[in-house]
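The instructor's notes for this session suggest beginning with a concrete chain rather than abstract definitions. Hand out the sequence below and ask the class to guess, before any prediction is shown, which regions might be ordered.
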Amino acid sequence: MRRQLGIYLSTAPDLPLCAAYASGADAIAGVCRDDIEVLLLDVRMPGITGPSVAAELAASGIGCKVLYLTSYPDEVPVRGDLRKTVLGALTKDISPENLVAAIRLVASGISLLAPEFIRQPAHGGAGSGDWVSDPREREVVRLVGRGATNSQIAAELNMSASWVKQTVSALCRRAGVRGRAGLAAYSGELSVGHGDGN
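After discussion, reveal the predicted structure:
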C-alpha cells in the first residue's frame, strides 16, 4: 500500500513524499522529526492504531494534518477534538487523481470527508445519500469528476454555461468544498446513481 501511494504521488511534483512509516509509533516519531505537513494515516497499523496516532498528534499540538485512508469507514472517529487534526478520510480504492486533489485540499486546511464517513446531515443540510438528487446535477458531478470544463458540460447537457457555473458553485457549497477539484475529490467515492457510461 505504501509503495502504491508513492506511485500515486509521483504524478504530483508539488506533493513531495517526505517519508513512509511502517507503524503508528514510527509515524508519531517521524512526524516530529520530518516536519510532515499532511500525514496519510492508515486506520489499522501494527501496534498503535491510526486513531490513536491522530489523537496523540492532536494532543501534542504539532499541527500536522491527518488524512485517513481505510477500508473500514465505520472505524474512523472524526468528530470532537479530532476534527482539528483529522481533516480528511477516504477509502483505499480512491483514484490517484482524487487522492492528489484531497491532499491538496487538506494541506490548505479544508476539511474533506468522503460520503462514507458522513452519517448525519450537518445543520439540517443534505446527508451523504441525498446531497445531489437532481438528474442534471448528477450529470454535472459525473462530468466534473471526468475533468470536463464548464463549456464542455454545457454543450453535453445542452444547458447554458452560466447555469453550469452556478450549479457547480451550488454543489461545492452543498458538499462543503472549494472549487472543482474539491467537488471531484468529494464525489469520487460517492455513487450518485449514474453509471460511468462506458
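Then share the key points. The chain is about 45% helix and 10% strand. Confidence is low (pLDDT under 50) at residues 118-130, 189-198.
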